[in-house]
Every structure is written in structure tokens, then in C-alpha cells.
Design a protein that fits this description.
By secondary structure, the protein is of the alpha+beta class. The protein folds into 2 domains: 49-184, no CATH class; 190-351, no CATH class. It contains 4 helices and 19 strands. Strands 4-5-6-7-8-9 form a 6-stranded antiparallel β-sheet, covered by helices on one side. A hairpin with a 4-residue loop joins strand 14 (261-270) and strand 15.
Length: 352
């Protein structure tokens, strides 16, 4: 009887041990799986407004409410006191931090295929040309990635960082960071500009006109006949807001006849402050013997830009002028007028 009792206790003990061992193994394996499937873990302090790579969608209804860690992707909801939030938003950011901050934003918010900046060995730094005052330029390189950051030396809350990210010699993203808000620099599709020759007569003088409206003036009618040019003239300004839709009207002024044309050849952004909008434009004038319409004309072009980030902007229009004639076979011949000094038009405006 004693032997049977001992055997029973031994069997129960072995069974309990087996259960404990199995549970422990399962628990250990589940822990391993959990670690394998878990995202990067950040310190608890990182998931707060004081966290180094915290981000909120500035300019939207979720500003200072929806927050995200750009390192691990964790998010939280919280309204911070206005003075605390403004201090975070308006703080000066070191160029090396801007480099990492923008790449993490591109990688984890825009989901672009860019590398993790925190795992890269960066070289480079300040490359501000000697003698350039009031403006800073930094260039960082790692592997096939180049990040260029430039900004004016102004109050921290007014600092607009112009950023360009290049990979394998191609621009992946170009934009600005101002008060923790990222904005991609617009690209102007010059094929979508609108030319007109009659509606601007007596309305737009020769030069560059900056227009600020509450909508894109090219819609719903992307046709000169559907545009109220008088209304556009009424919205000409040198100071606009970030909510305004900015357009440019480049006008040659009034001519007593037809035959005068304007064509936008190319557009590009230049980084120095103020941000420069550079246009290459062709003018054509009728040559001797060329038939023209006997009516007043005003060759102009409407260039829609869109909403812009706060800052100062300079528009440059670089002009080549041609004389149109025809050869003996009736083919057009364009002769460039050679000048000792380039014809250049400029205009400046501010977005607040």
C-alpha cells in the first residue's frame, strides 16, 4: 500500500513538472515571438512633446492633439498647454537634427523609400560660402544620400529651413520646414499656364503681377475666356497669407497691333533666401513685312503656383527676345536680338 501511494505521488509530481515545463517553454517562446514582431522600442520619455523626434501635423485639425514618434511609429493623443506647445514649435533646430528629422518624416509619414538617418555615418557640415552674410548652408553626405539644408539667420520662430534630399544623383524630395511644418516645394507645370492676348489690354501693365485669391483662378474653366482678368487685377498684392492661392501674371504690356507673343520656356527654384522663382521666357516681335492684326493686344501669361509656406519670395523673369520673319519658302525664321545686358524682370512678395 505504501508503495502504491509513493508511485501515485511520483506520477502526480512528474505530471505537474511536465505542465510547468510546458507552460514555461510556451511562455518563453511567446516572449521570443513578441520581441521578433515588436517595433523599435523607444524610451518612455520619447513619447511626449519633449521627445526628440515627436511630430504633430501642423496646419491641420489634429495639430497639438495627434502626436507621433518618428522613430518607432508610436502615436498618442494629447493637448499640451499653448505656451509649452509654442515653445516646442518655434524652437531653433540644429541643421544635423533637421537632416534626421526630415528623413524620418519622409520614411515614416510619407512612406518614401529613404534610409534610416539614425543608422548612417554622416559626413559634411557647414558649407556657407565665405562672405555670405545672414544665410547658412549645410550639406551632409552618407552612402548615396545627400541632404542640403539652408536657412536665413533670423529669429528662431521665423526660420524657414529649405531642404533638398538627393539619392543616387536624383532629387527625392525638396521642401521647407517652418515651425515644425513640412511643405513640399511646388513644381510648376508650364504646360498648364494660360496665355492671353486681348483680355489684359488696359488691365495689366508691363511687368510681373502677384495675385492672391481664395481659389485656383484657372478652375473650373482652364481657358482664357473663363477667367475674370479684372478680378485678378483687383487681387494683386505684395503680401499674402498661407491660405491664399498664389498666381503670377507676366505681362508685356499693351501693343497697338498683334504679332507680339510671350512663352514661358522653363521654371526652377533656387535655394538662397529669399526663395527665388526663376522663369526663362521668350518674347517674339513681328519683323518687317509680317502681317499682324490691327487691334490692341497685351501678351500675357497666367502661372498658377498654389499655397506657399511663410517667407519672402523673389520672382525672376529672364528674357530672350526674337524677331519673327519668313524665308522665301514661307517658313518662320526667329532671330535672337543680341544685347550687351540680359533683360531681367524682378518682383518680390511676402507670405505670412
Amino acid at each position: 500500500m505504501y508503495e502504491n501511494e509513493m508511485n501515485l505521488k511520483l506520477a502526480i509530481g512528474l505530471l505537474v513538472a511536465a505542465i510547468i515545463c510546458t507552460a514555461g517553454t510556451a511562455l518563453a517562446l511567446s516572449g521570443v515571438a513578441s520581441k521578433l514582431n515588436s517595433p523599435t522600442v523607444c524610451p518612455d520619455a520619447a513619447h511626449d512633446i519633449s521627445g526628440l523626434y515627436s511630430w504633430t501635423p501642423v496646419g491641420t485639425r489634429s495639430e497639438n492633439f495627434y502626436w507621433r514618434c518618428l522613430v518607432c511609429g508610436s502615436f498618442w493623443y494629447h493637448y499640451y498647454p499653448q505656451d509649452v506647445y509654442e515653445a516646442w514649435r518655434d524652437a531653433f533646430l540644429e541643421p544635423s537634427f533637421v537632416r534626421d528629422y526630415v528623413l524620418l518624416y519622409l520614411k515614416n509619414v510619407l512612406e518614401l523609400k529613404v534610409p534610416d538617418p539614425l543608422r548612417m555615418n554622416w559626413t559634411g557640415g557647414r558649407e556657407t560660402p565665405l562672405g555670405l552674410l545672414g544665410y547658412e548652408i549645410y550639406v551632409y553626405c552618407a552612402d548615396d544620400t545627400i541632404v542640403t539644408i539652408s536657412y536665413p539667420v533670423v529669429l528662431p520662430k521665423n526660420t524657414v529651413y529649405a531642404i533638398k534630399v538627393e539619392m543616387n544623383g536624383k532629387t527625392v524630395w525638396q521642401g521647407t520646414l517652418h515651425q515644425r511644418r513640412f511643405d513640399e516645394l511646388l513644381s510648376v507645370d508650364i504646360s498648364k499656364t494660360i496665355n492671353d492676348y486681348y483680355c489684359g489690354v488696359g488691365v495689366f501693365e508691363k511687368g510681373i503681377h502677384v495675385i492672391a485669391t481664395d481659389h485656383d483662378p484657372m478652375f473650373p474653366d482652364a481657358d482664357p475666356s473663363g477667367i475674370d482678368w479684372q478680378e485678378l487685377k483687383a487681387h494683386e498684392t505684395t503680401k499674402a497669407s498661407t491660405k491664399d492661392f498664389i498666381s503670377l501674371v507676366i505681362s508685356r504690356g499693351d501693343f497697338p497691333t498683334g504679332g507680339y507673343t510671350i512663352q514661358v520656356k522653363s521654371f526652377s527654384w533656387l535655394e538662397p533666401y529669399p526663395l527665388r522663382l526663376r522663369f526663362e521666357v521668350n518674347f517674339t516681335n513681328p519683323g518687317e513685312g509680317v502681317a499682324v492684326t490691327e487691334a490692341f493686344t497685351n501678351p500675357l501669361v497666367l502661372v498658377p503656383l498654389g499655397t506657399l509656406s511663410p517667407g519672402e519670395y523673389e520672382v525672376q523673369v529672364h528674357i530672350d527676345t526674337y524677331i519673327l520673319t519668313y524665308d522665301e519658302n514661307g517658313n518662320p525664321v526667329y532671330t535672337l536680338i543680341q544685347t550687351f545686358k540680359e533683360e531681367l524682370w524682378t518682383a518680390t512678395f511676402i507670405v505670412e
